[in-house]
Design brief:
The complex is a heterodimer of chains A (about 325) and B (about 325). Helices cover about 35% and strands about 20% of the residues of chain A. Chain A has about 325 residues and is an alpha/beta fold. In chain A, helix 1 packs parallel to helix 7, helix 3 runs parallel beside helix 4 and helix 9 crosses helix 10. Helices cover about 45% and strands about 10% of the residues of chain B. Classes of the chains: A alpha/beta (about 325), B alpha/beta (about 325). At the A-B interface, helix 3, helix 4, helix 5 and helix 7 of A face helix 5 and helix 6 of B.
Amino acid sequence: MAEIRYWEAIRRAHDEEMAHDPLVIALGEDIGLVGGTYKATSGLYDKYGPERVIDTPIVEGGYTGLGIGASFLGVRPIIELMSVNFAWLAMDQMFNSAAKVRYMSGGQLSAPVVFRSPGGCAHQLGAQHSARMEKVFMGVAGLRVVTPSNPRQAYGLLKSAVRCNDPVFINEHELMYNIKGEVPDEEYFHPLEGSEVAREGSDVTLFGYNISVYWCLAAAGKLAEQGINAEVIDLYALAPLDRAGIRRSVSRTHRAVIVEEAEPAVGVGAEVMAIINEECFFELDAPPLRISARSVPIPYNRALEKAAIPNAGDVVRAVLNMFGK
Amino acid sequence: MNTADKTRLLREMLFARRFEERCYEAYVERKIGGFLHLYPGQEACCHGVLEAARPGRDYVITGYRDHIHAIKCGTDPRAVMAELFGKESGCSRGRGGSMHIFDVAHRFMGGYALVGGPFPLAAGMAKAIKLKGDDDIAICFLGDAANNQGAFHEALNMASLWRLPVLYVTENNLYGIGTHIERSSAVTEQYRRAAAYAIPAKQVDGQDIELVYAAAQEAVGHVRAGKGPYLLELMTYRYRGHSMSDSNAYRSKEEEQAWGRRDPITILRDRLIAAGELTAEGYQALERAIIEEIENEIIPFAEEAPQPDPVELERYVLAENDPWVMGGAS
């Protein structure tokens, strides 16, 4: 099993799927000749040519709609939106066309298209390049949402998303393209539903996804020093969320903390708390908590920016408080 | 176009007119709900263009004024009416409604309700055709008002840049909902806009089906030959309001009467009669047969068709039994 970077994992998945099926294409801004802002499509233009690795004009709504239209005829486009902030411009097509076409055609037509895009706060990119938008996508019926936290997931989720007959949004992260992790040498397809136990524990469940899994793991390490054995659940699938997995863990630990990089309103934390409420309320020994970003447009100033986004220390303090420590 | 073709097209356009007028009645009777956008006045556009293409084989997409485009592609009119009645036997199983008629078997790829949404979808279908190496084309019918959307410019730019086999048809009926084109568009002649993207274009009288057909033959030929997109602007008029909720109070009687004198069905009928290829009695018989078909076959089919089962409410949201959801066989 080789250790590779997140962007290399995404690139490998593209390469294998394009080799496997001539109707798999990639399109987006600067993904061809330049190889992608995060190198996720590097080398593919030379290998598969400009008809299948398409440098688009900077028109997010236009090329997203074009990819969706191609998918109606069985093409499997992987559409890269250079930043999730730009996806606002593509949402009409993502929601009104891709997510609804199967339903409003009575099952005749589908849009087997993959949207991938980095979200999250990087370093001082300012308010219009720091959105965390997973909450927006996960509220739309007909669209699957996954968010890889490591190279293995990034590789396997993209592979399954390309083959799946539903539109899938893959929420990546600006800060994670260079992280390293083990990816199986043989071909691997990751499930598009479910969750993973990132760390086993018995006293409290920390729910994270994407970058916040690392905050949870760091917090769990600190908490262990204080005698608290935290479990970390990686919610790589945000739509649909893994109700059974959430119930299973909370029923064992009886305490839950959800850690999200986004603002709290109508977010992953709110949704997971609602599921806990519905599935296992009477198993709880303490009210569930969510650790979220502050509800502000992300500021440019580095200190203000850091103050807006939660970190492992916030998680540790909240859990200690929960245990009366 | 020979006499038999013209007589058939006259029948098709008259059928379209009576079908839509019957929809109006069914809406008033509350058999049809939601929004309903009717096509009377514009029949020569859809029929003239698709007559020059390969309906049922070329891929067609349009906006919410979509019943007649589907029928011309080969959709059973009974399935369209059943859809309007919200029935399981409807062409979209009662899940779509008037604005979302679909018939993928006949390559009618749908009616979409966001103004301008189909522009890039059509370019994408054309991209798929090109990748597959087929000689089919994509045809996108939308109104003049859609051309003010960014999607028009984005899609035309990409279609021209990549020489995609797509024909854009602008049915210019002079109104975007209730706003006249002079009040919404800096350049009212829509075909002139195509020059910005190096796309050939032509403006044609959309009320004379023979002129529409001739222009469409040239346009379709251009696109099918692999020379890239084409934009055809057809000057037309809708007799009814934008939708059933439109009071239609923004147009003068004089304007409506002037366009009424240029009715596409009357123009073709009178031409056939003048040429001795049709009699007034023959025309009346044609109309009677159409009304009988609508009343005796289409409406009863829609009336008697079953309602969707509420148990299936959540069906068709996602693919069924897709193995890749759980990572396939691995």
